[in-house]
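Worked example 3 (structure in, sequence out).
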């Protein structure tokens, strides 16, 4: 993989990654540390946090893991107090922690709905507000990056609470970009397509056949790599993207756009076969058999 960033791109930053012990959060935490940042990760389970911290330290990076359930406003406050006590003022926040499962909407219980909405929407708001308050009080700049999804815009069957919460995250990003922009605080989001992390795959990928179908929907014919999101996130947290505010960056190999185009199904056929069909449709086609 090309490595074009300066090795100190994120030096002098203390970056919090929620849900940083596993999946995309872990990949981002590793990359930020690799680019010079001091990192604090949180999550409900201490074990993955400890593992990721150990991996960062093994590479010479600086990291701490502090257990926290982002659904709980008091825990979030205590988390930021402790993170700053241990590693100094937080300068960047990545709202990555997410919950999701596939379910027919009529079968979702209030607890199931709460588990998703409270993790994704409440958790993102609590963490963002906690950072925003600190930055405003200190009169310092800051950047918030939230992980949304492409179906925040379109909606999606069978993941309705996730779609609702991610749409809320996009609305928060755009609203606060306007409200806090003049105070030096930027907010952006990434809207990923499917990324094969353990957490997402075990809940959202029913089997090999479905996985193949999902892959074929993507114009570049592959899933994204967590390290690719980590690079994009590094750019979005750095001063390289200093003029970007309120943006939702789609990062899906073209999947969402391809799902919308009426004639995109042709791209799943061999190109020569498509051309032959198209030639037959031409008014000057010599084929007048119909
Ligand atoms: C219906 C379900 C369910 C399912 C759980 N519930 N799984 N209902 N279908 N598959 C219900 C339970 O029955 C319970 O309701 C309620 O949800 C809470 O479940 P618990 O297990 O008690 O709670 P909790 O430990 O908080 O678990 C939350 C969780 C779990 C969301 C269910 O999956 C989780 O913690 N996930 C975190 C990690 C994660 O989801 N990662 C994937 C994000 S990927 P009752 O009424 O019985 O008490 C992602 C990518 C999107 O979002 C883009 C993809 C393309």
């Amino acid at each position: 993989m090309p490595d074009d960033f300066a090795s100190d791109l994120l030096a002098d930053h203390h970056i919090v990654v929620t849900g940083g012990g596993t999946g995309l959060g872990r990949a981002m935490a590793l990359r930020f540390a690799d680019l010079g940042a001091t990192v604090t990760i949180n999550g409900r389970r201490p074990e993955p946090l400890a593992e990721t911290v150990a991996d960062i330290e093994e590479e010479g990076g600086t990291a701490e893991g502090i257990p926290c359930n982002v659904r709980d406003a008091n825990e979030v406050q205590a988390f930021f107090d402790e993170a700053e006590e241990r590693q100094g003022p937080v300068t960047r926040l990545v709202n990555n922690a997410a919950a999701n499962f596939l379910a027919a909407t009529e079968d979702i219980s209030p607890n199931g709905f709460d588990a998703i909405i409270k993790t994704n929407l409440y958790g993102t708001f609590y963490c963002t507000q906690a950072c925003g308050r600190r930055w405003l009080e200190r009169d310092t700049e800051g950047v918030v990056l939230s992980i949304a999804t492409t179906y925040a815009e379109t909606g999606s069957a069978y993941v309705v609470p996730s779609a609702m919460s991610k749409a809320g995250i996009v609305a928060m990003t755009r609203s606060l970009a306007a409200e806090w922009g003049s105070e030096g605080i930027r907010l952006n989001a990434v809207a990923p397509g499917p990324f094969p992390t353990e957490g997402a795959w075990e809940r959202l990928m029913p089997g090999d056949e479905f996985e193949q179908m999902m892959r074929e929907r993507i114009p570049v014919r592959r899933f994204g790599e967590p390290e690719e999101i980590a690079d994009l996130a590094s750019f979005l947290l750095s001063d390289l993207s200093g003029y970007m505010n309120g943006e939702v960056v789609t990062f899906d190999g073209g999947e969402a756009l391809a799902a919308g185009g009426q004639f995109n199904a042709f791209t799943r056929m061999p190109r020569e076969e498509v051309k032959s069909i198209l030639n037959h449709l031409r008014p000057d086609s010599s084929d007048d058999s119909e």
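Notes: The pocket of hexanoyl-coenzyme A is lined by residues 98-101, 103, 108-109, 111-112, 115-116, 149, 162, 194, 199-200, 203-204 (CB under 6 Å). The longest helix spans residues 110-138.
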